[in-house]
Design brief:
CATH topology of the largest domain: 2-enoyl-CoA Hydratase, Chain A, domain 1
Distance between the termini: 91 Å
Oligomer: single chain
Structural class: alpha/beta
CATH architecture of the largest domain: Alpha-Beta Complex
Strand order of the largest sheet: 3-4-5-6-7-8-9
Number of domains: 2
Radius of gyration: 23 Å
Shape: globular
Order of helices and strands: EEHHEHEEHEHEHEHHEH
Bound molecules: zinc ion
Number of strands: 9
Number of helices: 9
């Protein structure tokens, strides 16, 4: 028989099945896309600035990663790295939770601030980190952002804040709510000094952060697919007794409704920020500042 001349060779059968082989893949080598399920190599993922090349899903960045992909290499100088929060309400488990977040993230609180350059243009940045108690805004986040804005005024440079937050930190009660007014006041002084403020909203930006500095940029930019909102969907639906559309509170939806200026893929973000900073710098020259 002709087909006997080409016997099927069981090439794989000679290799003993090794169920533990998968476990031997070094941790962090691959990651599964949370949106489309594709398996992605970490190296490839890094090249794509942690976005999925198949579906465009944006993975969460830590504050350290955000600084690394945004600022010019070696330009970052951190402010107030050791500012830590008290426990003004003696809220149950709060101190322990802060300590656990500190251990897990290596951060003192949910925001990192400092100065650096983007495309050679000096800037002051604030970068929130969702790993630290959901990026909630307590007195340390408020104080660090306020001091950073004041530094920007002193140095006469623009401010960029990358938001990711579950909102105000309830464990600090009114002390966290008053940060909204404090940061907003500092931003008003920045505007009086005719300095640019760019707000970059990332997934998710909600609550008191959306209700204050995240929406107060001269330019408000969001990453694709980010959830942006104030109150949660269920609360709004119960209050207004209406069903909300599925895409409600996505970056694309709030763009369409005029709340933000642009939705930008992370791969294009650094270049856009550099362009905005360069336009602002030129504006400064023209106005004789
Ligand atoms: Zn994907």
């Amino acid at each position: 028989m002709l087909k006997d001349l080409f016997p099927k060779k069981k090439r794989y059968a000679t290799v003993a099945p090794n169920p533990s082989a998968r476990d031997k893949v070094p941790e962090g080598l691959m990651e599964k896309c949370k949106q489309c399920g594709q398996i992605l190599f970490a190296k490839e993922l890094d090249k794509q600035v942690k976005t999925c090349p198949h579906c465009g899903y944006h993975f969460t960045l830590t504050a350290q990663e955000r600084i690394q992909v945004t600022l010019d290499e070696g330009s970052f100088e951190e402010f107030d790295a050791n500012l830590v929060s008290g426990d003004p309400l003696h809220f149950p488990d709060y101190s322990a939770r802060v300590e656990r977040s500190r251990q897990a993230t290596g951060l003192a609180d949910a925001v990192v601030t400092g100065a650096g350059t983007i495309g050679g243009f000096p800037v002051v940045v604030g970068v929130m980190d969702s790993r630290f108690i959901m990026g909630s805004m307590g007195s340390v986040v408020g104080e660090k952002l306020t001091r950073a804005i004041e530094q920007a005024i002193e140095r006469s440079v623009p401010v960029i804040i990358f938001s990711v937050s579950g909102g105000a930190r309830m464990q600090e009660g009114i002390f966290s709510l008053m940060q909204m007014a404090k940061i907003s006041t500092a931003l008003a002084r920045l505007a009086q000094s005719r300095l640019l403020y760019i707000s970059v909203l990332t997934h998710p930006t909600t609550g008191g952060v959306t209700a204050s500095f995240a929406m107060q940029g001269d330019v408000n930019i969001s990453e694709p697919g980010a959830t942006i909102g104030f109150a949660g969907r269920r609360i709004i639906e119960q209050t207004i007794r209406q069903k909300l559309p599925d895409e409600f509170q996505t970056a694309e939806f709030v763009l369409e409704h005029g709340m933000i200026d642009q939705v930008v893929h992370r791969k294009d973000l650094r270049a856009l920020l550099a362009t905005l900073l360069s336009l602002h710098a030129k504006g400064g020259e023209w106005s004789g500042r």
